[in-house]
Amino acid sequence: MATRLEPRRGVRAGEGSPDELAIAYRRLNAAYQQTLRYAEDVRRLYQQLQRAIYQSLLGLANALEAKDPYTRGHSERVGAWGRSVAAALGLSADEIETVGQAGLLHDIGKIGVPETVIRKQGPLDADEWALMRRHPLIGAQIVAAFEFFKRGAEVIRYHHERCDGTGYPDGLAGAAIPLGARIVAVADVYDALTSDRPYRRALPHRAAVEHLVEQAGRALDEEVVAAFIGLARDAPARS
Ligand SMILES: [Fe+2]
């Protein structure tokens, strides 16, 4: 920003005099303070915009859950577990936030899967599975439009990868799977097991934990499972 340093009309000061320099300094300082205020306004607006976009995405995720009573509340619980496990593993505040938000939105891509497949009461056939397996990619594409949620998009894309490399969509293994996605995967499996489904009743906490332990180091990340079990031990049992 160009700043006029010449003295104001009516101010009689010699060239380079202390008065003139003092005036110039005050103007520069005022311009600087104004710039700081603008920067703060822009930062605040950007945060408001992020929140508005996130709320819209959440609305979409809720609309998806409203279609399927069996998954109602699932995203919220996966987000909450994801946040707690990320904190227990010592992730930064930003990373915890990303895992929590991505946990909430992890299945948003099911919006692009036919409702007949999502609500099917029995096992899916090969074609239906092929459609269902697209949801992590669709979800990542939906949120990838928002630059600030780039890492959240990765968590969504990889939440069905398995540590032994047998997951989808890319068959990544071990540490190649972003940690956030490994966290959401554990929370997702636990919550699915402890929830009623059309084809089976919810498992009790103890049986679900046994399943997690069995899958640790295979489908699921060992360290994440250990952190999850440590937290779940103290959590009140779900009805
Ligand atoms: Fe999923």
Layout of helices and strands:
Layout: H1 18-67, H2 74-88, H3 93-105, H4 115-118, H5 126-132, H6 135-144, H7 150-157, H8 179-193, H9 205-215, H10 222-234
Helix pairs in contact: 2-3, 2-8, 2-10, 3-7, 3-8, 6-7, 7-8, 9-10
Fold and architecture overview:
The chain is an all-alpha fold and 239 residues long. It has a domain at 69-234: Orthogonal Bundle (Hypothetical protein af1432). Helix content is 61%, strand content 0%. It contains ten helices and no strands. The chain has helices at 18-67, 74-88, 93-105, 115-118, 126-132, 135-144, 150-157, 179-193, 205-215, 222-234. The protein binds fe (ii) ion.
DSSP strand (E) fraction? Answer: under 5%
> What small-molecule ligands were found?
fe (ii) ion
The CATH topology of one domain is Hypothetical protein af1432
Total strand segments: 0
Give the end-to-end Cα distance, rounded to a whole number of Å: 62 Å
User: What is the structural class?
Assistant: mainly alpha
What does the main sheet amount to? none
The outline comes out as elongated
Assembly annotation: single chain
Helix % is 55-70%
Rg over CA atoms: 26 Å
> What CATH architecture of one domain do you see?
Orthogonal Bundle
Features:
binds fe (ii) ion, 239 residues, elongated, 0% strand, 61% helix, disordered N terminus, mainly alpha, Hypothetical protein af1432
Task: Summarize this structure briefly.
With 239 residues, this protein is an all-alpha fold. It contains ten helices and no strands.
